[in-house]
Amino acid sequence: MPKRHGNRQPRRVFRVSVRRIGLLGLAVILSVTVMTLIRGCHREPPDIGDCTRLEVHFIRGAIRYYIYTAERYRIFNEDERRLVKSFDTLTVTDPQLIKAFAHDIGQGTYKGRDWLDMEAGDSDAELNVACYRGSEQTASFTVNRGTIIADRKIFEYSLFKPDIGIFEPPEVKPLQTRRRCAGELGELHYWGLHNRRARLFPDPNRPYEYEDAVEGMRHMYVGYCSPYSWGRHNKRDRLYPDPNRWCDDTVEYLRSLYVGYSSPYDKSKYWGSDTHISRMFVYHSRKVSTAASDIRAKAATQKGLVWRSDYAMNPHCRKGSPRNMVLLFESKLGWNQHGGPELFTFDNHDPKGGCVLLNDGTVKFIRTEEELHQLRWK
Asked: Across-strand partners of 233?
């Protein structure tokens, strides 16, 4: 009598079921993988044109964004710093601003994947932007110096894009003007006055070396004797440019700076055009000179209609003068202006006041006549 194998049929059915479930699971995994790859291949920047609201968050705080150096931090009082801090997060609902920002975002060029997940923890990122249509969030990305990271994809932009300056609150604009003024004074001090014997790369025919102390740090410079070096006198006896033509001399000096590329003495690239140099003297939205046809031309030949300066020089200040003596200060618009507190103006800013540059490079913002006359002028 044959043996009965009653339990074999259920086992066979069980094996078939497991096989089918396994194949179905594999199909699901493959489908998810393919969909992920297809999604990852989308190389267009986020389309935020239909957004109705943007939440813009300054990752390191509005203070770090708008007042980004300790030097400039000193020209704002506590109330002004508190005001800036209140804008750590901005809500943007203006359709025109959103449209302009969406246009900028759409101009990005795909550069690759964010394999390191910098979007989640990039310490250099400036902004985090969340985009909403009604109450639904449709996109989010971080912005950092011409780059955005969206959904772990990196997009790069041309210079000054995307323009996040369009979100600047009206209350911050006057403070930004003051910050730019302080920055231009600092640049004039460093490049045009304090280190004017230095060259980025010197004339190889007459080199010499000397040390100079700037802000307590010693740097080795290589320069050459020029009409603006005034010989190798004691530091206390070295003068700044002639106050009667300090703007002209500073422009001519800055025109002589150049940057070497192929060799240290390559003069094919100058430090800055006339347009760049002229902007060091004015920080308002004024029309300044265009680049001269001959970059070595004396600035004095272009005075009058094109060269203007918002600053005047204190003729009593030498390089060896006390560190807290006034060197440059805000004045009415002019050129080669020099004098004392009688030339100072409070009218360039809102609220009223003006910047002064001290001999050690410190910039202060003066708000009252009393503060002005407490400064050291002689």
From this structure: none
Cα separations (Å) of 195 from 138, 211, 214, 226? 52, 11, 9, 13
How is residue 166 annotated by DSSP?
A: G
Helix, strand, coil percent values for the chain (each to nearest 5): 35, 20, 45
Q: How confident is the model at residue 200 (pLDDT cuts 50, 70, 90)?
A: very low
Largest CA distance in the chain: 129
Beta bridge partners of 298: none
pLDDT in tens, 10-25: 555 555 565 666 667 6
Residue 351, preceding peptide bond in cis (omega within 30° of 0): yes
Distant-in-sequence, close-in-space partners of 219: CB < 8 Å, separation ≥ 6: 211, 212
Mean pLDDT (the chain) is 73
Tokens 């240290």 belong to residue: 264
Give the amino acid at 215.
Answer: E
Dihedral sign from CA coordinates of 260, 261, 267, 270:
negative
Return the closest-CA partner of residue 243 out of 142, 158, 311: 311
Separation CA 328–CA 364 (nearest Å): 11
Side chain identity at residue 107, one-letter code: Q
pTM, full prediction: 0.67
Spatial strand order of the sheet with 309-313 comes to: 309-313, 326-334, 354-358, 363-366
Long-range contacts made by residues 161-169, C-beta under 8 angstroms, separation at least 24? Answer: 161/104, 161/107, 162/101, 162/104, 162/105, 162/107, 162/108, 163/100, 163/101, 163/104, 164/56, 164/101, 164/126, 164/127, 166/97, 166/100, 166/101, 167/56, 167/90, 167/92, 167/97, 167/101, 169/87, 169/90
* Rounded-to-integer distance, Cα 313 and Cα 323, Å: 15
- The dihedral region occupied by 172, where left means phi > 0, alpha psi between -120 and 50, and beta the remainder, is alpha
Q: How far apart are CA 286 and CA 55, in angstroms?
A: 33
What are the phi and psi torsion angles at 8 (to 5°)?
-75, -40
